Amino acid sequence: YVINLGLQYDIEKAGINTTLLFNQIGRRILYVGNEDIPAIWENPRPILDFQIAKKLFKSQGEIRLSVSDLLNQRAYFYHDVDDNKKFNRNSDAIAIDRLYGSTFSLTFGYTFK
Length: 113
Prior knowledge:
four-stranded antiparallel β-sheet; 57% strand
């Protein structure tokens, strides 16, 4: 499954625009296994991104703050040892345990006319 949701709010008179995005992808295969080595699966994790922008200098400039992966959930890649088609921390073998972290960026743009 794939879940993509977006919410945008625009205050035109103030020159402010905000965006909130949510994404989640269901269990998917990372590496195909064989008879000797079982497949490695990626456990679903929610990702929430936020962005706010403000127009400046008679709308010729814009400052934008973006935050990616606000929830910062761990990513688990695992062997489905119990073959129940979902991640079980107690019985499945974790191949990769990764925390990607949140990303923050601040940008400024200006259009010359």
